[in-house]
Amino acid sequence: MLQWRVERARQDSGPSGADADGKRKEGYDDEEQTGRHTLPQNLGDGLVLRRATPADADKLADFNATIHNWPSATGPNESIGAWTRDLLTRPHPTFAPGDFLLVEDTRTGAVASTTNLISQTWSYDGIPFGVGRPELVGTAAKYRKRGLVRRQFDVLHAWSAKRGELVQAITGIPWYYRQFGYEMGGLALGGGRTGYRAQVPKLEAGQEEPYRLRPATEADLPLLMRLYEEGSRRSLVACVMDEALWRYELNGRSERNEARREWRVIETAAGEPVGILGHPARLWGVALSVNCYELRPGVSWGAVSPSVVRYLAATGREYADRAPQREGKPRQEWEAFGFGLGEEHPVYAALHDRLPRVAPPYAYFLRVPDLPAFVRRIAPVLERRLAASPLAGHGGELRISFYRDGLRLVFDGGRLVTAEGWRPTVEDGGKAAFPGLTFLQLLFGYRTLEELRYAFADCWADGDEPRALLTALFPKRASFVWAVS
Questions:
Q1: In the chain, N or C terminus with fewer CB closer than 10 Å?
Q2: Do 2-181 and 192-362 have matching folds?
Q3: Which residue has the higher pLDDT, 62 or 327?
Q4: Is residue 238 within 8 Å of residue 225, measured between CB atoms?
Q5: Do 237 and 479 contact (CB within 8 A), yes or no?
C-alpha cells in the first residue's frame, strides 16, 4: 500500500469520543463546537463538509477505490474499497462510521474529498499514549487546490485533541502532510528483508517438517496477545493491541479488505505452540511478505524460520494459482518471500544469507501539538535513561529552542520536575536548537543528536552538558509500529 501512495502523489495540496488511551466510545463527539469545527459546514460552491454515515459506504468505497490506485491501473483498487466499506458498515473496536469526513458536492451528490480518523493507543518504551491516525485522504482532481484537506484536518485535529490523543500519525506521500504541522521522519515505516526461490531451504531426504503452521482461532488469543506484547518490547514505539483489536484482526475484516491479515500459529510436530505469524491474504507483486513473526522466549529462530520460509513458499504458490487471470496480463507468479518487520528483527540474523535484498524503511508523518504534555507523559522513561547515564542524579535547566518557540526542561536529582513551553529571545537563545519540527526525530529515536547536527546547520548544542544531557535523554532506537487500520 505504501508504494503506490508514494508513486501516486496525486493528493490535494490546497491551503465520536474516546477515553484517554484512544479507545473509541459509543456515539460521536458532541457537535456543540464552534467555528471551523462545527459540522456540517457550508464550504461554498455547493460543497458541504459533514460526517459520513453507513449510507455513504458504497459511494465512499467507490471513490477511494478509484482515487487510491496506481496511475496505470485499468480498474478500481478493490481492496481499498473493501477497507472503506468495512470501516463504515462493520463493528470496529476504535472506529465509528462518523469518524469519516466527507466533502460532498450537493449539486451532484458526488464525493469531492474525504478522510477519517482511526483512534488507537501506542506506547513509548512501555508508556501508553493516545494516537489519532488520519487515513484514506483523497480529493477528486476537479476539486483540488481549494484547501479541502486542510478544512478536514482542522476537524480531525480537534477530534483528536478532545479524545486526549497526544500524537497524530499518518502514512502518505512525501512532504505533503508537512503543510498541516507534521514532521516526516519521526518514526521509521516499514522496511525489511527479502529472499527468492533459490533461497528457500530444502528439507533433507526423508526429513519431516519440524514445525507446522495452522490457522489461528479465538482460542489462540492469549498466545497472540502475549507473544505480540513480548515482541513489542524490542521497539521504542509500538502499537498496543488489546483483546478486542485481536478479535477484530482474526474475524472483523472482509476477505478483500486492504488491511486484512492471515494469522497462523506455529507448532512443533507434536502440536506444541511456539510462535505466531501474520501476513497479507494475497501476493504483493510476486512476493508474500510477513508483517508479524514472534516466537516464545527460548525457542530458536534458526530452528523455526526455515519451516516458516517453506510455508511462505507453498502459500505464495497457492495465492498465485488462485489469483484471477486478467486479459492481456501475464499470469501472476510467486517468486519471493519477505519479512517486512522494520529495520531490526531476530529473523534477519537467523536467515541472513537467505535474505539478500534489504528494503530500507520509509517514514511516518508525526504531529505532536502539545510537546510539553507529551514529554511529561514519558517522564519515567527519560528519568530511567538519565539514571543509567554519566549524568545520573542531574539537576538543572535545559532550554531548547525551535527558533519561534521552544521547550524548557528542569531536572532535580535526576527527576524531571518541569516540562513547559518556552520562547527564545535575542538575549537568550537557549542551550540547544532544532529547526522546524526536527526535534521530533530526536524525541522518537529516529536520529541521534550528532546526525541531526550533521544534516541541519542550524541545529546545535552549546557545551558539554547540553550535548551529554540530550544524548542521554534521547538515544537512537529502532521502532516498528504496526498501526490500527
A1: N
A2: yes
A3: 62
A4: no
A5: yes
Q: What grid cell was written down for 408? A: 524548557
Q: Please give the mean pLDDT across all residues of the chain.
A: 92
Quick one: pLDDT at residue 33?
46
The predicted model scores a pTM of 0.92
77-99, pLDDT tens digit by residue? 999 999 999 999 999 999 999 99
In Å, how far are 28, 87, 118, 302, 483 from 95, measured between CA atoms? 10, 7, 6, 39, 13
Quick one: what percent of the chain has pLDDT higher than 70?
A: 92
DSSP 218: G
Q: Which CATH code fits 370-473?
A: 3.30.1050
Report d(CA 149, CA 76) in Å as an integer.
Answer: 22
Three-state DSSP state, 426 = coil
Q: Where are the domains of the chain?
A: 2-181, 192-362, 370-473
Q: Which residue has the cell 489462540?
A: 220
Over pLDDT 90: what percentage of the chain?
Answer: 87
What pLDDT, on a 0 to 100 scale, did the predictor assign at position 332?
83
Superfamily of domain 192-362: Gcn5-related N-acetyltransferase (GNAT) (3.40.630.30)
Alpha carbon distances (Å) from 197 to 44, 194, 286, 337: 57, 10, 11, 8
pLDDT value for 458: 98
Provide the CATH number for the domain formed by 2-181 in this structure: 3.40.630.30
